[in-house]
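Long-time lurker. I teach an intro course on protein structure, and each term I like to show students one example going from raw sequence to a predicted 3D structure in token notation. This year I'd like something fresh instead of my usual example. Would anyone be willing to generate the tokens for the chain below so I can use it in lecture? Attribution to the forum is fine with me.
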Amino acid sequence: MADVRNFPDDYQWERAKRLGVSQSAIHYALKRLRITHKKTRQHPRADLQARQAFIERISDYERAGRPIVYLDESGFAQSMPRQHGYSEKGLRCFGPHDWHAKGRINVIGAILENTFVTLSLFTENINADVFYAWMTQDLLPKLPHGAVIVMDNAPFHKRNDTAQAIGDSRCQLEWLPAYSPDLNPIEHKWSGAKAIRRQKRCSVDELFTEHIEYVRLC
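-- Reply from a regular --
Happy to contribute to a lecture. Here you go:
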């Protein structure tokens, strides 16, 4: 355990060499200790004090029983060609690709307790006007008073009338620390949605209407 704490991102062969054992011994020791291989990347410009202060505020909200809503945007390609295939060794693998396929669909979503509250799909780029309309017409009417809304510092999030609308709805705005997308759990939901789409081979509309779970708010 001490070796893992001191050298968390070392490869197994590096541990084996340092400890004078085989790599397979390291593999089984880590498995027995239930130590798994993972890494959360942190931006070098992230402010550690701001991150810690944010984490503590979120903990305070949770202890107070306040609903915490995380929101973000993501893009989904309308076409989904497979990037790799099989062929005999030495031969290239070719597959069909529509070079005139439509572009991307932009999605704004929000989660509560790790489940989507709402999602909206747009074929145009998301700007301050689009975001304000989504916030006031879609998200805020669905939230209970006292909810904490967490979002990043994208320029189109920061228009004054958006912040005013959040306050008028008796919700509280909490900004993510700069360069800290890893503190927004909706990032994992986007990754999960894209994995589901690859598995189901479905359209973006089908993905969000048939394969995604939503919170039922009273």
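Some talking points for your students: The helical segments are 2-6, 12-19, 23-32, 48-63, 128-139, 160-168, 186-200, 204-210. The chain has two domains: 2-32, 48-210.
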